[in-house]
Amino acid sequence: MLVKCIYPFFDLKEDIKREIGETFDVTLERYEEILSKGSFIEKAEEEIQKDLTKDEIKKLLEEKNIEYNKSATKNELKEILDGSK
Which InterPro entries does the record match to this protein (predicted)? Predict the structure, then answer.
């Protein structure tokens, strides 16, 4: 899973200092392990968008006033949303 550093910390497993805004991949087990030590990371926006339903994507598009075909598939809607960044 892709995570984003929200508070600087030294990653003992990777032997590297993580900086605010840095994104990196972790397993679910490692994600939970880091969170158990403090609020150093969060799911990255890209990871959050993977979990969105079709209706949630439509709502985000509507909030951004982005037009889309009502019969578009979830993948098509996601591409439109990704292109709006």
Answer: SAP_dom_sf (IPR036361)
Q: State in Å, rounded, how far the first CA of the chain is from the last one.
A: 21
Q: Whole-prediction pTM value?
A: 0.57
8 A C-beta contact, residue 51 and residue 74: no
Beta bridge partners of 11: 16
Crossing angle of helices 74-83 and 54-63, rounded to 10°: 30
- 1: helix, strand or coil: coil
Single-letter residue type at 33: E
pLDDT at 79 over 90: no
Domain extents for the chain? 2-46, 52-83
Helix intervals (H) in the chain: 28-37, 45-50, 54-63, 74-83
As a whole-number percent, the residues of the chain with pLDDT over 90 amount to 58
